[in-house]
Each structure stands twice: as structure tokens, then as C-alpha cells.
Amino acid sequence: MRPVIRLFFRGVRLVLTPFMLVGERVTRPRGVQRDPEEQARVDEQTRAMALYHFPACPFCIKARRAMQRLSLDIELRNAQAAGEHRETLQTEGGKLQVPCLRIEEPDGSVRWLYESGAIIEYLESRFDPQRAGADTESS
Predict the structure, then answer these.
(1) 87-128: per-residue pLDDT in tens?
(2) Residue 52 DSSP one-character state
(3) pTM, whole model, 2 decimals?
(4) What distances in angstroms separate CA 114 from CA 1, 41, 100, one per listed residue?
């Protein structure tokens, strides 16, 4: 029975994946407009971040949409297929769960932030110019 259930869900994913990816592209949010100097500062800070994701995961899509809305240039690392990114997420991050934001702190330590809601909250608190107390300086 278990193989039949797996086969069913693989079929569902196979059918839904193209629709989810097209939907993400069609409904892409408009990004925040910043002056070039401020955007360069934000880009410098986001170079120390990477989002481990699966392309069609709804929670990953949610996190990527928040990144687009905030005009963040964070490296995307596809961890769905076996390979370097998946292995790094498992060994260094501690678990194979996406989305996961890898944050390299200024002191050199690395922080792994799981859960789309927590990732979005972190990004908004740090980079949303409309949020009170938004910190766009190095922290």
C-alpha cells in the first residue's frame, strides 16, 4: 500500500509542479525601490546569505516571493536533487528541511534559519524600509 501512496503523490507533484512555477512567475510581486547606494548596502549584506529550497515547494515559493518583494539578491540553492547543496543542508544545517536560510554572521559564525514564517519575519525585520526600526545597516 505504501508504494501506491508514494506513486500517487509523485503523480500529483508531477502534474502540479508546472502550474506552481508558472503561477509564481505570473504573480511575481513588485520589489521595493531603494536609492542605488542603499540597494548596494543591502546587496552587500545579502551576499552572506543563501536560501536552500525546492523549486515547487509552496513554503519555498512563499519565502522567495518575500525576497522578491523586498528586492533581496539572496543566492538560491536547490536542495531537491542529490548533490552538494542537499548534502550541505543535511550535514551543516542539521536536517533536510526547506526552506532554510543560511546566514553567515559578521563574526564568521553560521546560523541556519528554518520555517518560511521565521525566514520572512527575519528578512522583513532587517530589510523592510517601511517597518519601524528596520535595520539596513550591518548588524
Answers:
(1) 999 999 999 999 999 999 999 999 999 999 999 999 999 999
(2) E
(3) 0.83
(4) 32, 25, 5
